[in-house]
Amino acid sequence: MPKAAPTFIDKTKTLGKRSASGGAGKASNPLFNKDLGQHILKNPLVVTTMIEKANIKSTDTVLEIGPGTGNLTVKLLEKAKKVIAVEFDPRMAAELQKRVQSNPTLRTRLHLIVGDFLKLDPLPYFDVCVSNTPYQISAPLVMKLVETGGWRHALLMFQREFALRLAAKPGDTLWCRLSAYSQLLCRVDHAIKVSRNSFRPPPQVESSVVLLTPTYPRPQIDLASYDGLLRAVFNRPNKTVRANMGGRGVAKVLEANWVAAGGAAVVGAEQGKNEVKQMEVTDARKEPKSTGKNKLPAMDGFLDLLAQKSSDFLSLPDIPALAAPSPVTFTDEDDAMEDAEAELTPIPAEDDADSDISLDDADPAGAASPFRRHVNEILEKSGYAKKRAAKMDVTELLGLLEVMEEGGVRFA
């Protein structure tokens, strides 16, 4: 019996088919755009836990930012009276609409807004915010929410490190400008840890959910000035306040604000008075004893000299008015708030070896600067000179802002 001819398999064709199918598999779900931070929450246990933590009432209006395909949205619609979902990607918005189309109750409760949440002004009214936040906009999103206020609480998903920064306490390694700014307006609590495997596609980092609860009454301060102070003292948080205020970048901006506000005129006048007094004492010592005939001319000459010296200090150019501070915005996710756009420009870090240097030592060229001596005096008298931002709580930071502004130093 003749043997059957052996069958040969062309492995190159088989591998080619596998490669093609593998490539198609990777591109089989083009809906998700990682550039927009689209990582869909797929773990039903995490969704259920978030709904429980949100404590939603049947009369609540809920704001959701970045609903995606609606895994969390559907659960919110079952609990709340109304859900306002803000979605940037029109494709995701279409998927969400399809998902609730067959349910009239859910469809009527959903109010879908297609657009950029950060450009939404004013924000619609809401009681609770629940969101699997796009990580790229974490910082500006938080700032927009906390500055708006008027809501009961917010339950937000963030990258783990960002969430820990947000909830950090004074003395913690992660205590930073973001922490101090957010906790001025809200209480921040870490609520849930979420594994990266709970998302599709999985991100490269772990996540956490935080609970923000607004503080009432809200502090009546200028937020731009508070942020300016934070930029100054958190430039090098482990250095003393005096060292940070004496840094060239900080001192330059603060002195410009001080001059524009008229602080230079006050100190200049004081200097003029002091020099006139010193000159009067010196001239009195040098003046020879004279008779009644030449006594009056000598006094006239002294008065002329006195007027001339006084005018040197008291005749100042017109002082420009301060420009209105621009809104504080935050754009950097990785370093929380380092690239924020605010009135006080970003300050370059300096590698000073001594953290307790004085304002004059920080910049020898400005040792005679009246402004720097003025700031140094404020810090010494108030007891803030040797404090460090890394260990200062919100109350201490507000106290520092108060004494500096009372002394005419403006941060915005």
- For the record, the CATH architecture of the largest domain stands as 3-Layer(aba) Sandwich
CATH topology of the largest domain: Rossmann fold
The residue ranges in which pLDDT falls below 50 over 5 or more consecutive positions are 6-30, 290-299, 309-366
Secondary structure tally: strands: 9
State the separation between the terminal residues, measured CA to CA. Answer: 99 Å
Bulk shape:
elongated
List the strand order in the largest sheet.
Answer: 4-3-2-5-6-9-7
Proportion of beta-strand residues: 5-15%
Mean pLDDT, all residues: 77
Largest sheet: 7 strands, mixed
Question: Which structural class fits the helix and strand makeup?
Answer: alpha/beta
* Order of secondary-structure elements: HEHEHEHHEEHEHHEEEHHHHHHHH
CATH top level assignment of the largest domain: Alpha Beta
What's the alpha carbon Rg, rounded to whole Å?
A: 32 Å
User: What name goes with the CATH superfamily of the largest domain?
Assistant: Vaccinia Virus protein VP39
The share of residues in helices is: 40-55%
Could you walk me through the main structural features you see in this protein, from its secondary elements to its overall organization?
This protein is an alpha/beta fold. It folds into two domains: 183 residues, 3-Layer(aba) Sandwich (Rossmann fold); 125 residues, Helicase, Ruva Protein, domain 3 (Orthogonal Bundle), CATH 1.10.8. It is 46% helix and 12% strand. It has 16 helices and nine strands. The strands form two sheets. It has a seven-stranded mixed β-sheet with strand order 4-3-2-5-6-9-7. About 23% of the residues have low confidence. It catalyses: adenosine(1779)/adenosine(1780) in 18S rRNA + 4 S-adenosyl-L-methionine = N(6)-dimethyladenosine(1779)/N(6)-dimethyladenosine(1780) in 18S rRNA + 4 S-adenosyl-L-homocysteine + 4 H(+). It holds the Pfam family RrnaAD. Belongs to the class I-like SAM-binding methyltransferase superfamily. rRNA adenine N(6)-methyltransferase family.
